[in-house]
Amino acid sequence: MIPLIHHPDYTFELPAKHPFPMAKFQVLRAQLDTLSPQVEWITAPLAKRTDLARVHTESYLDALLAGTLDAAAERRSGFKWSEALIKRVRLETGGTLSAAEQALVHGLALNTAGGTHHAHADYASGYCLINDLAVAAATLLAHQWVNRVLIVDLDVHQGDGT
Predict the structure, then answer these.
(1) Which residues form the catalytic set?
(2) What's the whole-model pTM score?
(3) What values do phi and psi take at 147, rounded to 5?
(4) Which residues contact 91 (CB under 8 A, 6 or more apart)?
(5) SS3 assignment, position 76
């Protein structure tokens, strides 16, 4: 069985003509459902603030979670703040951490969202508000479940946050 991590709230309504392809998460889930009965769907949990704080500054997390980012920071993120957005970001990060934990047990696991490698410790960038990859790596290291982590970035442009 291959663990696949997903949550229906990976997708939420964005304003008309927003460039981020939010529907891709629903489409991916539907496509993966047709591939094989050899998968186990696991619902992504919300990432804990303590895990987020392994990578992100407290002041950034305070502003992000409370919706008090200034206008410039919000523009840099690519999203207008909303509770649905924050829930999605925390689920996505929780899903990546869950996939990492499942991979340690099963050898392979996938999260249908994530890869938000442009988020820096103290600011969002390029549709990335929390760096889920860095959070998962830091959490695995903090718990001493691994000795080292390799993140391979195959994006068309450099993941400047990770």
Answers:
(1) 118
(2) 0.89
(3) -95, -25
(4) 7, 9, 10, 44, 45, 46, 47, 113
(5) helix
The 10 Å CB-count burial string (b at 16+, else e) for 60-94 is bbebbbeeebeeebbebbbbebeeebbebbbbbbb
- Name the burial class of residue 50, with classes exposed (0-12), middle (13-18) and buried (19+) by CB atoms within 10 angstroms of its CB: exposed
CATH number assigned to the domain covering 2-142: 3.40.800.20
**Burial classification of residue 117, based on how many CB atoms lie within 10 Å of its CB (0-12 exposed, 13-18 middle, 19 or more buried):** buried
CA atoms of 23 and 58, how far apart (whole Å): 31
Are 153 and 159 in contact by the 8 Å Cβ rule? The answer is yes
How confident is the model over 103-162, as pLDDT tens digits?
Answer: 999 999 999 998 888 899 999 998 889 999 999 999 999 999 999 999 887 777 665 766
The dihedral region occupied by 144, where left means phi > 0, alpha psi between -120 and 50, and beta the remainder, is left
Residue type, 81: W
